[in-house]
Design a protein that fits this description.
Helix content is 19%, strand content 16%. The protein is built from 3 helices and 5 strands. Strands 1, 2, 3, 4 and 5 form a 5-stranded antiparallel beta sheet that branches. The longest helix is centred in the middle third of the chain and has 10 residues.
Length: 148
């Protein structure tokens, strides 16, 4: 999914850690309940089937920092303002810009619910169409993945 993105687009002391990718519809329902009918903070406005995660076309990420510059990338961060490389552009924005340059949609651009760690590439498919295909069991043969 990220084969056209070169590391040279990222600060040299930063790597991406994917923290969530494919999410089942049940897992999405559980996340939606958080802060509503279950304890915790609201983290999504998408019900089960309404998230691009449910179709394997989205991921959430954090940044790994190599603070001591020994190649170990020992610090995991969701800090969107960190500028570890000191170029006056947040490292988060540098990473987002690189992904957007190859067609990804960033949740931080959304108006009603900012989802800063979210990137997706739905290839022109909206969640309604993907849910319709899922409900109709239009799957890749031998899987439960929706055929695009």
């Amino acid at each position: 999914m990220i084969t056209h993105l070169e590391n040279s687009h990222f600060p040299p002391t930063v790597q991406i850690r994917i923290v969530q990718g494919l999410r089942t519809i049940k897992q999405q329902e559980d996340l939606y309940a958080q802060g509503r009918t279950k304890p915790g903070k609201i983290v999504t406005n998408a019900r089960g089937g309404q998230s691009i995660h449910n179709y394997g076309l989205a991921f959430d990420f954090a940044l790994m920092y190599d603070k001591d510059k020994n190649g170990s990338f020992e610090i995991l961060s969701w800090n969107t303002g960190e500028d570890f490389d000191g170029d006056k552009i947040s490292d988060w924005q540098e990473v987002v810009k690189a992904f957007k340059s190859i067609g990804f949609v960033w949740g931080g651009d959304w108006v009603s619910f900012k989802d800063y760690p979210h990137l997706e590439k739905p290839y022109g498919h909206g969640w309604r169409e993907l849910l319709r295909r899922h409900t109709a069991k239009e799957f890749i043969p031998g899987t439960s993945y929706v055929r695009l």
